[in-house]
Amino acid sequence: MGRFPAVVALAASLLASTTVQAQTDIWFPGWVADAERQAGQQLFKDHCAACHMPRPGVPYAPNLVGVAGRPAGSVPGFPYSEALKKSGLVWTEDNLKKWLANNSKLVPNTLMPHVSISDPAEQIYIIAYLKSLKPAH
Ligand code: HEC
Fold first, then answer.
1. Ligand 1 pocket: which of 46, 48, 132 to mutate (most atoms <8 Å of CB)?
2. Which residue's CA is minimally distant from atom 41 of ligand 1?
3. What is the pLDDT of residues 87-115, one digit of tens each?
4. Whole-model pTM?
5. Segments in the chain forming alpha helices (H)
6. Which partner from 36, 83, 117, 137 sits 20 to 30 angstroms from 105, CA to CA?
């Protein structure tokens, strides 16, 4: 059965040459998504959690539970900047990426101090983590 290892090697090289997206869709849907969320959680702890604890009731920054897809500046009771409230933005993935890369460029005069997560992979991980946040009961 000398051919079997060759088939495996061919499959492995095909796998290695497909895009990451295709690999996640076809081969490893569960644990890749978990790994992204975990990487995002660590990045969130390092760069965001001091202000945005992922639970309601923390006053320094708006609660980010459910942020993906909602209009910017829309958590009731949080004293947002006029700039963010009037931005007209919705937190699509694309806008979240721009915010992470350079929030004060996306919304000049925002109250959020500048963060600069310029690595596209890190942006994806953080967004995966944000999407996984559920309201605390
Ligand atoms: C020093 C405190 C601080 C840090 C660190 C911080 N933020 Fe913020 N964030 C804020 C404040 C304050 C606002 C409200 C900005 C405004 O009103 O202009 C905000 C707003 C946001 C919003 C818009 C929320 C909404 O309801 O419209 C998102 C999304 C966000 N931050 C994500 C992040 C992420 C992700 C990180 C880490 C990469 C981060 N922030 C780091 C203070 C912070």
1. 48
2. 48
3. 999 999 999 999 999 999 999 999 999 89
4. 0.81
5. 3-17, 20-26, 29-47, 82-85, 93-106, 120-132
6. 36
